[in-house]
Amino acid sequence: MQRKKADKLKKLWRNKPCDHPSFDRVYVLGDQTRDVACFRCGEVFSPAEIQELAKKYSDRVFVFADPSKHKNAFDDGPEAA
Ligand SMILES: [Zn+2]
């Protein structure tokens, strides 16, 4: 998702607790960043923060646990579907 959209989601979410059920790559205009954002609350995470989340929620599959290995994970992602 666009960084702008993440910021908007975050504003709408209003700091409620979120266990970050799913993520999307963050884009700034056309450029993919190494960050990901939570679909639900709009919180943006750096690759290091994603590693921490992957440890915390080890029962979940984190395709972004190592973003460098999943550059194209969302080429046909949820927004295109
Ligand atoms: Zn979240």
Summarize the structure.
Helix content is 26%, strand content 20%. It is built from 2 helices and 3 strands, in the order H-E-E-E-H. The longest helix is centred in the first third of the chain and has 11 residues, at 3-13.
Overview of the molecule:
The protein has 81 residues and is of the alpha+beta class. The protein has one domain. 26% of the residues lie in helices and 20% in strands. The protein has two helices and three strands. Strands 1-2-3 form a three-stranded antiparallel β-sheet. It binds zinc ion. The site of zinc ion has 6 residues, from loops.
The helix/strand class is alpha+beta
pLDDT averaged over residues: 80
Task: Report the bound ligands by name, code or SMILES.
Answer: zinc ion
Order of helices and strands: HEEEH
Which spans have pLDDT < 50 for at least 5 consecutive residues?
Answer: 70-81
Number of strands: 3
How many strands, which pairing sense, and closed or not: the largest β-sheet?
A: 3 strands, antiparallel
Helical amount:
25-40%
From the N-terminal CA to the C-terminal CA, the straight-line distance is 13 Å
Strand order of the largest sheet: 1-2-3
| Proportion of residues in extended strands | 15-25%
Number of domains: 1
User: Can you count the helices?
Assistant: 2
Q: State the shape.
A: globular
Radius of gyration, Cα only, in angstroms? 12 Å
